[in-house]
Design goal:
CATH topology: L-fuculose-1-phosphate Aldolase
Number of domains: 1
CATH class: Alpha Beta
Strand content: 5-15%
CATH superfamily: Class II aldolase/adducin N-terminal domain
Shape: globular
CATH architecture: 3-Layer(aba) Sandwich
Length: 261
């Protein structure tokens, strides 16, 4: 993952370089989520696993806006929900349930993102979910699963069902709730969220137009999905997040710098 320029200059002496870089990138992701209009005041959450043998991950302090998130403000949590960072803030208990579910069960998925946007919730409330009606929808269609709404995510028992429903996918529609994406890097999870948000936005735009749908033939759906698998692979021209993330950091440095402190 790309490292923001000079970010290490602000690293506390007691902290490893790998944890600090994870903090910087996750703080950047929070600010980018706000920049793209996906934040929900103090609601929703993003997390990243701290590199190393411990089952620790970073998440937002409840009370800090996404637009003002910094690397040092993020709270480190263990697998039992204990906060390991000295902070004036606590964490959202639903955030611990949702994010620990993935981090504890699938350690290679180092980042989890959850949003409640107008477009994401608008589609999450639909019986058929994301429809294969646009090229943008097809970019995530084969990578998307669904999890039924169970109320506020305070019940630790829901973690097993969350992970089971996620399966090997990168996008999950939390029905009547919002969107969730995961990735092997912060950049990958962010780009899956970008794609999911875009697919939902275009679906709602079409539905609100009242126009007659021109469906994509199933053979073309299958072909496009396979083309996407190849393009997104390590040997393809757009492995998810690898080229986009450095560009997004440059954008953030121009629009809202200061996350790397």
């Amino acid at each position: 993952m790309a490292q923001p320029a000079a970010a290490n200059a602000n690293r506390p002496d007691h902290m490893t370089e790998t944890e600090w870089q994870t903090r910087v990138n996750l703080a950047a992701a929070y600010r980018l989520v706000d920049l793209f209009g996906w934040s929900d005041l103090l609601g929703t959450h993003l997390s990243a696993r701290v590199p190393g043998p411990d089952e620790h991950f970073l998440i937002n302090p409840f009370g800090v806006l996404f637009e003002e998130m910094t690397a040092s403000a993020l709270i480190k949590v263990d697998g039992e929900g204990n906060c390991l960072t000295d902070s004036d803030y606590s964490i959202n208990p639903a955030a611990f349930v949702i994010h620990s579910a993935v981090h504890l069960a699938v350690p290679e998925l180092t980042c989890v993102m959850h949003t409640h946007t107008r477009d994401g919730v608008g589609v999450a409330c639909q019986e058929d979910g994301i429809l294969p009606i646009s090229q943008q929808a097809l970019s995530i269609y084969a990578h998307t699963s669904y999890h039924d709404y169970e109320g506020l995510a305070f019940d630790l028992a829901e973690r097993e069902r969350l992970v089971s429903d996620l399966g090997g996918n990168r996008v999950m529609v939390l029905r009547n709730h919002g969107l969730l994406t995961v990735g092997r890097s912060i950049g990958e999870a962010f780009m899956w969220m970008y794609r999911a948000e875009r697919a939902c936005r275009y679906q709602l735009s079409f539905q609100q137009s009242g126009a007659k749908l021109r469906p994509i033939p199933q053979a073309v759906v299958d072909k496009t999905v396979e083309q996407g698998r190849i393009a997104n692979s390590p040997n393809g021209h757009r492995p998810i997040g690898q080229k986009e993330w450095p560009a997004l950091l440059r954008k953030l440095d121009r629009a809202n710098p200061g996350y790397d402190v």
